[in-house]
Design goal:
five-stranded parallel sheet, elongated, about 40% helix, four-stranded antiparallel sheet
């Protein structure tokens, strides 16, 4: 939405300008800072609609910024899109589990960054929405009330855990879920699910989905997302 404010936290001047320019072209109001300390001060002062946060910062790094941001009631609702360098997979996982909403890796396409920013802001503006009784994504349909999945009209027999994983991913297309977040979503009714078993569940789920298997995308080193 035009006019929304974005706080960009990036200490590399050329990357900061790339982000600022492309966001400003889309009519966002952009404020830029170069350190974690300034990021926290600006977040409290400006209450931006979203923060684009580089993880590698001098002084207070991006993960610490995210942790402080999410633990402070005055800033905990600010969505965060992380910017990371390749090879920082463990930091991506840590950031997402701290409450960051999405991430892009350097080098990145400005179009990809903009699409992530727009998607996160759209989810924020829509607020929490209960999953509909019927989720339809292309040839795939998921009826939550009936616990029923169909691919091109053909019924697919899923276990409780497979169904809950699919429901979780399909309910928020484009959203990256870490394995731990999937475990938290599926956990309940004494079903034993672990981080490691999520991968095996995904393998079985893809096999059963057949032609629709590619809709579940692996985000290397992080987790899974349903194709947006």
């Amino acid at each position: 939405m035009a006019g929304e404010t974005v706080l960009v936290v990036e200490d590399e001047e050329d990357i900061q300008e790339l982000i600022r320019y492309n966001l400003a072209r889309e009519a966002y109001k952009v404020t830029c800072v170069t350190s974690g300390e300034d990021a926290l001060k600006s977040a409290r002062r400006l209450s931006p609609d979203l923060m684009v946060l580089d993880l590698m910062l001098p002084g207070v790094d991006g993960l610490e910024v995210c942790r402080h941001l999410k633990s402070d009631p005055s800033t905990s609702d600010i969505p965060v899109v992380m910017v990371t360098a390749r090879g920082e997979e463990s930091d991506v996982v840590a950031g997402l589990e701290m409450g960051a909403d999405d991430y892009v890796t350097k080098p990145f396409s400005p179009r990809i960054l903009l699409s992530r920013v727009k998607a996160v802001l759209r989810r924020r503006n829509e607020g929490p929405v209960a999953l509909p009784e019927l989720i339809e994504r292309g040839d795939l349909s998921i009826h939550t009330g009936r616990h029923e999945v169909r691919v091109k009209g053909r019924a697919v027999d899923l276990t409780y855990t497979e169904f809950r994983i699919l429901q979780t991913l399909a309910g928020r297309p484009g959203w990256v879920f870490t394995r731990s977040q999937i475990v938290d979503a599926v956990r309940g009714e004494n079903y034993a699910v672990t981080d490691r078993s999520v991968d095996f569940q995904i393998v079985g789920l893809r096999r059963k989905l057949g032609d629709c298997a590619s809709c579940i995308q692996t985000v290397r080193g992080v987790g899974y997302r349903f194709q947006d």
